[in-house]
């Protein structure tokens, strides 16, 4: 009842009345469109895609020129497959050509945002206002699948803004988070093995219906609870996002909290891209608002069940359109439909951020994923980061617990040298903590800067 009142009276009044946003009507539309057939949803996408591409051709000089160079007929779109003729847009292109990608239409309303530099340089971009309402609506829906509609009591273990805030700003944030959306914000930046108890106390006091968290700090918290046998409040569901969630992490989190985990996938550029429903057969794509492709390095669609890089086309953001934008993450597209009956296609799994590739002095490329694969078997390592400090020098920083011994170090060294060879120097260094990115994420592999543009080759397992 309280949840209902929050959602339908307070939040709706704020969004629709005070802010004059269309979030609630769009949300209602999405709640209905998700049950339409796959075919219906695709024809909706094609219709909208035609409008978008025409718009870009008229108002965005960079797209117009580029497509003309590629000899593309912008008006010849009759199916989703026709989009594959269009060239891929990279983050560097968006950044370097921002002025000509921005719409030249007069009087267009927008909000301005930026992505952090967790995978290289930051990007500033614009979102048209109406498109922004649509994505907030899509986030309401996707979180709703996990029982976290707006207004439900939630604790967020999340990267909290590090910049010093003015009093006014602090009050505003408090209003939004605590009073309007009933969220208790726990700073994931401060999370560590040693202070986990304080976080548990706060969860036990606030008693959230849903716990929303970054994958890594939540895993650290779950591990500490497990090892110390602390009793913790059981939320109805747990939503994990923003960082790659590994299967072993998911298993531990579900066991320790006794609640189902819902994985979500989103980004600053597009908000919620995909999320799990309660059938847990993959992540449903927000297809009414965007087209998500999984492609190989040449931009051709990969078969369902195979891994590829993700391209996103935002169907509504005209202020600064993203067309076939390589977001830098990899995923596996699913073959079948979800048994829940929603027509929204599934991503079988998010493989994760396209990790840095280390170019070795002998000319080989070492996929960043090598390190997590190797280290997950060594239980005394709590956290790690591999940094290529020089073209021929790799520093592996480790946060370890008391079960760490010299054998672990020797074994780790042996296995790494086995793979990288003798041409790189390897330094294994124990540290107290590893710094997070400005967005609060852990960047596990950092290549020597000149080499960052190299693509990650496919790796097994
Ligand atoms: Zn489903």
TrEMBL record:
Q: Tell me which InterPro entries the record gives.
A: ANL_N_sf, CapK_Type1_Caps_Biosynth
Keyword presence, Ligase: yes
Recall the taxonomic lineage recorded for the source organism: Bacteria, Pseudomonadati, Planctomycetota, Planctomycetia, Pirellulales
Q: Which UniProt keywords apply?
A: Ligase
- Identify which top EC class this enzyme belongs to: ligase
Repressor recorded as keyword: no
EC numbers, comma separated: 6.2.1.30
Q: Which GO terms describe its molecular function?
A: phenylacetate-CoA ligase activity
**What's the protein here called?**
Phenylacetate-coenzyme A ligase
Top-level taxon of origin: Bacteria
């Amino acid at each position: 009842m309280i949840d209902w009142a929050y959602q339908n009276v307070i939040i709706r009044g704020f969004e629709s009345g005070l802010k004059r946003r269309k979030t609630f009507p769009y949300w209602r539309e999405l709640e209905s469109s998700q049950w339409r057939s796959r075919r219906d949803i695709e024809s909706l996408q094609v219709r909208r895609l035609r409008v978008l591409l025409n718009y870009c051709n008229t108002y965005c000089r960079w797209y117009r020129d580029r497509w003309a160079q590629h000899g593309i007929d912008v008006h010849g779109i009759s199916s989703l497959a026709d989009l594959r003729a269009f060239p891929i847009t990279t983050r560097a292109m968006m950044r370097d050509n921002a002025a000509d990608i921005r719409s030249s239409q007069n009087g267009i309303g927008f909000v301005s945002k930026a992505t952090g530099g967790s995978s290289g340089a930051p990007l500033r971009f614009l979102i048209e206002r109406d498109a922004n309402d649509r994505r907030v609506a899509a986030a309401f829906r996707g979180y709703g699948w996990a029982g976290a509609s707006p207004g439900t009591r939630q604790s967020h273990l999340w990267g909290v803004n590090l910049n010093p805030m003015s009093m006014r700003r602090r009050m505003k944030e408090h209003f939004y988070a605590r009073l309007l959306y009933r969220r208790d914000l726990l700073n994931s930046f401060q999370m560590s093995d040693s202070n986990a108890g304080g976080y548990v106390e706060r969860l036990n006091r606030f008693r959230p219906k849903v716990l929303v968290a970054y994958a890594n700090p939540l895993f650290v918290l779950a591990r500490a609870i497990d090892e110390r046998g602390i009793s913790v409040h059981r939320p109805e569901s747990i939503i994990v996002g923003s960082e790659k969630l590994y299967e072993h992490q998911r298993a531990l989190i579900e066991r320790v909290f006794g609640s189902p985990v819902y994985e979500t996938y989103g980004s600053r550029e597009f908000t919620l891209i995909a999320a799990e429903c309660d059938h847990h057969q993959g992540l449903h794509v927000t297809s009414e608002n965007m087209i998500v492709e999984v492609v190989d390095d040449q931009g051709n669609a990969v078969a369902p069940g195979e891994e590829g890089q993700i391209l996103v086309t935002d169907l509504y953001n005209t202020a600064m359109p993203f067309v076939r934008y390589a977001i830098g993450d990899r995923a596996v597209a699913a073959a079948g439909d979800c048994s829940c009956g929603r027509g929204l296609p599934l991503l079988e799994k998010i493989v994760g951020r396209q990790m840095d590739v280390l170019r070795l002095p002998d000319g080989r490329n070492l996929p960043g994923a090598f390190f997590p694969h190797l280290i997950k078997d060594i239980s005394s390592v709590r956290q790690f980061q591999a940094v290529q400090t020089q073209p021929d020098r790799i520093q592996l920083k480790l946060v370890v617990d008391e079960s760490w011994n010299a054998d672990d170090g020797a074994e780790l060294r042996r296995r790494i040298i086995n793979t990288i060879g003798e041409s790189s120097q390897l330094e294994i260094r124990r540290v107290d903590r590893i710094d997070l990115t400005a967005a609060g994420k852990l960047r596990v592999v950092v290549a020597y800067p000149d080499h960052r543009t190299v693509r990650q080759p496919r790796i097994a397992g």
